[in-house]
Backbone:
């Protein structure tokens, strides 16, 4: 197995290398989220001996000038083609919110190319076959901003900054457009184990959206919860890191 520093990746794939790591975890942000929001998780995983990667979506941060993608399938393919994932050891995927669906499509591509994925962590994200239940997604500036406020996870003071709000709006709209055209058959499956995680007070995710992840794997399935809302992760970083880093 090569170490991450030996393997070529696009510069917008953020890497956190752990000495002597036996595997790697790829982190997929939520809709509108930038890689920077998951640096703390990635560093914590590296401290636990797991190589961590965070992928960056177009229309934000160092990919601000990159054109928006037409759909989740295209986004997953772009992320899959961003590096030599088969050379960084056993793969685990962690996707939060929309990132869980992107991670699922990434896993399907990996398996098509004979790259094994051990497990997928679906954090506060609905099962792929249930995505049409939330469509149509907000599309106007007013509705998107209201949705961001309802979602939480962003400091309200930042939302009052016009420049920040404009950049966030561009990223969220890009991701929502990609998600709006997404559909997945209930019997679409990956061989990786799927572990769904939710917040006990997450009003955005219905219970069956998490439970239905079980239908998308031929491997094992678990469902667990942490106290908190949609961004429960912010309050339980240590526990989630411990969970995800176990082999």
Residues:
């Amino acid at each position: 197995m090569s170490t991450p520093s030996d393997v070529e990746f696009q510069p917008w794939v953020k890497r956190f290398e752990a000495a002597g790591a036996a595997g790697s975890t790829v982190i997929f942000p939520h809709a509108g989220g930038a890689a920077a929001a998951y640096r703390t998780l990635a560093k914590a995983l590296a401290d636990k001996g797991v190589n961590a990667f965070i992928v960056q979506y177009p229309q934000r941060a160092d990919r601000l000038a990159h054109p928006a993608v037409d759909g989740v399938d295209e986004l997953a393919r772009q992320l899959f083609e961003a590096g030599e994932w088969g050379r960084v050891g056993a793969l685990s995927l962690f996707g939060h919110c929309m990132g869980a669906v992107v991670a699922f499509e990434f896993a399907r591509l990996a398996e098509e190319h004979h790259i094994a994925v051990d497990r997928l962590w679906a954090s506060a994200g609905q099962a792929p076959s249930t995505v049409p239940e939330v469509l149509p997604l907000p599309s106007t500036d007013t509705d998107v901003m209201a949705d961001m406020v309802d979602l939480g996870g962003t400091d309200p003071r930042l939302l009052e900054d016009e420049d920040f709000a404009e950049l966030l709006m561009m990223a969220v709209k890009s991701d929502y457009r990609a998600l709006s055209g997404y559909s997945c058959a209930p019997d679409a499956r990956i061989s990786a184990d799927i572990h769904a995680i939710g917040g006990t007070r997450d009003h955005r995710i219905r219970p069956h959206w998490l439970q239905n992840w079980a239908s998308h794997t031929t491997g094992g399935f678990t469902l667990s919860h942490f106290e908190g809302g949609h961004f429960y992760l912010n309050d339980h970083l240590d526990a989630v890191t411990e969970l995800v880093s176990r082999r």
The chain is about 35% helix and 15% strand. The mean pLDDT is 95. The first strand starts at residue 14 and ends at 16. Residues 214 and 221 are 6 Å apart (CA to CA).
